[in-house]
Specification:
With about 280 residues, this protein is an alpha/beta fold. The protein contains 11 helices and 8 strands. The longest helix has 17 residues, at about 250-265. Pathway: Cofactor biosynthesis; (R)-pantothenate biosynthesis; (R)-pantoate from 3-methyl-2-oxobutanoate: step 1/2.
């Protein structure tokens, strides 16, 4: 196990986490947390708390821009969010999603989008979804000098083609998913996210790959775990997926603060003389 200096979560690196640090954590069996972030304050808080990897996810579509799923968000909408997260952190490795439609045409489109995102945001890596067919895009981006995190299993950008939110890796799907994971590693991906994958298949992939495997609804045997921060903190009032656990009730706290502010304004308790200029 890592000592207090080298561990990913809360370790005193004095610099940004790198993909080499993630690989070393895998070698020593250290598990680590990852969260999404889309703006300055959460980025600062998560960075100061020691979260080693922050994902500016296309989940901004349904957690920032109020879309029903991740499909509509654009590169132009993602770039300001990622730029803010990078500017607000000094330790976390920042990964930015390639949104739907920005990389699926061919590997050259994937590379062009990745170059734009890295140049305009300062993110240390990009992430893309897909099966074995996406491995060539990963290879093209990596060959150009950009770090890539891959995403397999349930791929939210393909929600309509998949027929909804369906668990992946059951039955004959298992071999296809394992093959895709291995293809991503061969193509040069530095890490792999597995979403809504059976725990048994996720465990097998984690054992087979030398790169970190990050689970979200993929059971307890992955090298790392990621959640959308609004789910983690209890901001989302809607129905939660089975894999979500709220570690706080930020929605209730913010509602209470809002009501206290409103009550003080209505009843003349705010502002008072101490808040006034003369």
């Amino acid at each position: 196990m890592a000592d207090e200096t080298t561990r990913l979560y809360g370790g005193d690196y004095g610099r940004r986490i790198t993909i080499r640090d993630l690989h070393r954590a895998k070698e020593r069996g250290e598990r680590w947390p990852m969260l999404t972030s889309y703006e300055m304050y959460t980025a600062q808080i998560f960075d100061e708390a020691g979260i080693p990897v922050l994902l500016v996810g296309d989940s901004a579509a349904n957690n920032v821009y109020a879309h029903p799923d991740t499909v509509p968000v654009t590169v132009d909408e993602m770039i300001p969010l990622a730029r803010a997260v990078v500017r607000s952190t000094s330790r976390a490795l920042v990964v930015c999603d390639l949104p739907f439609g920005s990389y699926q045409i061919n590997p050259e489109q994937a590379l062009a989008t990745s170059i734009r995102i890295v140049k305009e945001t300062g993110a240390q890596a990009v992430k893309l979804e897909g099966g074995q067919q996406a491995a060539e895009s990963v290879r093209r981006i990596v060959d150009a000098g950009i770090a890539v995190m891959a995403h397999a299993g349930f791929t939210p950008q393909s929600v309509n083609a998949l027929g909804g939110y369906r668990v992946q890796g059951r039955g004959e799907q298992a071999e296809d998913l394992i093959a895709a994971a291995e293809a991503f590693e061969r193509a040069g991906a530095f890490a792999l996210v597995l979403e809504m994958v059976t725990a048994e298949v996720a465990a097998e992939i984690t054992k087979r790959l030398s790169i970190p495997v990050i689970g979200i609804g993929a059971g307890p045997y992955c090298d790392a775990q990621v959640l959308v921060w609004q789910d983690m903190a209890g901001m989302n009032a809607g129905d939660a997926a089975r894999f979500v656990k709220a570690f706080g009730d930020l929605r209730a706290a913010l509602t209470s603060a809002t009501q206290d502010f409103a009550d003080d304004v209505i009843n003349g308790r705010f502002p008072t003389e101490e808040h006034a200029y003369h």
